[in-house]
């Protein structure tokens, strides 16, 4: 069986470079090609069992997300897996349902199974990373942050809320409400603060009841939209701070028999493909797949020994064209 030293000699690089290639660390494309070509010619296979014993960890990454049914997290997970596979790592997907108890159990499993690291979108601001951090395992928070000193990748959520609200004002709507996620989550608060900032600057003031908190799911958006429509002065448009709540809001609007051309909706996040005529809704498109890929790259760098200061990467969203009055929702 070929050794790492034979691969290095054939490739014309050092054994350390061979090790970096097979551990998924940063190496020039030319050196990667030389090493992989040499390994293929020599039928070299890295000894993963020995590597695990040396590192006291597996080549498995835990990915904890709150809702696998949400297309945003599906795309995020795909980005994580794509990058992990490139470096020879596997991903275990854990669905927490935004339940801190489930989340803690998965984190304990990741620690006990000696997983190499964790990427998570925390279920709450009180996430307990003690078990995994005490083992020295790297953690990257994605989409939401944690009180622990760990790397993070997130969206510029306040800018996303501003963009969604401004698009509706630009389209001619004036009484713009907001359906936000649960209170106390940083991402939720940043997005509705963006809404509030634009309403304060361009609107006629915030009407009582125009901010509704709900869970992040379809039924939450549906209930919140019904509450908004029942107000004495109902809104003529609404911003939802995620995509699934937007679907619930659309359902409530249709059930109320409101003419689609009289009501505007802007969603932070892309609507699933099964929603009819999504082009008629303002969508703030979130780079979910790139978000996941970036998080995985940061985690793999830490696994490989990166000792740079902690980083928080902030990504920008993209807004679809606004909808003028008279060309509103088509259900």
From TrEMBL:
PANTHER family assigned: HTH-TYPE TRANSCRIPTIONAL REGULATOR GALS, LACI-RELATED TRANSCRIPTIONAL REPRESSOR
Domain HTH lacI-type: 2-55
Protein name: LacI family transcriptional regulator
One Pfam family of this chain: Peripla_BP_1
Domain of life, per lineage: Bacteria
SUPFAM superfamilies in the record: lambda repressor-like DNA-binding domains (SSF47413), Periplasmic binding protein-like I (SSF53822)
Presence of the UniProt keyword NADP in the record: no
InterPro entries assigned to the protein according to its UniProt record, in alphabetical order: HTH_LacI (IPR000843), Lambda_DNA-bd_dom_sf (IPR010982), Peripla_BP/Lac1_sug-bd_dom (IPR001761), Peripla_BP_I (IPR028082)
An MF annotation (GO) of this entry: DNA-binding transcription factor activity
Keywords assigned: DNA-binding, Transcription, Transcription regulation
């Amino acid at each position: 069986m070929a050794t790492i030293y034979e691969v290095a000699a054939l490739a014309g690089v050092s054994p350390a470079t061979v090790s970096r290639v097979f551990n998924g660390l940063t190496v020039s494309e030319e050196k990667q090609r030389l090493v992989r070509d040499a390994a293929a010619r020599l039928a070299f296979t890295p000894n993963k069992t020995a590597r695990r014993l040396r590192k006291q960890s597996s080549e498995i990454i835990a990915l904890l997300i709150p809702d696998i049914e949400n297309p945003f997290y599906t795309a995020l997970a795909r980005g994580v897996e794509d990058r992990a596979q490139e470096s020879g790592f596997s991903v275990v997907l854990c669905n927490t349902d935004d339940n801190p108890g489930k989340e803690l159990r998965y984190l304990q499993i990741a620690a006990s199974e000696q997983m190499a690291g964790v990427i998570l979108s925390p279920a709450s601001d009180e996430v307990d990373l003690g078990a995994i951090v005490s083992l020295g395992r790297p953690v990257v928070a994605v989409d939401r942050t944690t009180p622990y000193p760990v790397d993070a990748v997130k969206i510029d959520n306040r800018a996303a809320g501003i963009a969604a609200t401004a698009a509706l004002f630009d389209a001619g709507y004036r009484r713009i409400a907001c359906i936000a996620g649960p209170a106390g989550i940083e991402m939720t608060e940043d997005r509705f603060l963006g809404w509030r900032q634009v309403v304060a600057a361009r609107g006629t003031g915030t009407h009582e009841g125009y901010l509704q908190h709900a869970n992040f799911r379809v039924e939450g958006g549906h209930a919140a939209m019904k509450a908004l429509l029942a107000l004495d002065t109902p809104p003529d448009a609404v911003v939802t701070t995620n995509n699934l709540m937007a679907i619930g809001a659309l359902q409530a609007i249709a059930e109320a028999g409101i003419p689609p051309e009289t009501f505007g909706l802007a969603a932070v996040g892309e609507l699933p493909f099964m929603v009819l005529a999504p082009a008629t809704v303002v969508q703030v498109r979130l780079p979910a797949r790139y978000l996941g890929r970036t998080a995985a790259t940061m985690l793999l760098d830490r696994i490989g020994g990166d000792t740079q200061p902690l980083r928080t990467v902030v990504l920008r969203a993209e807004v679809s064209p606004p909808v003028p009055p008279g060309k509103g929702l088509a259900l």
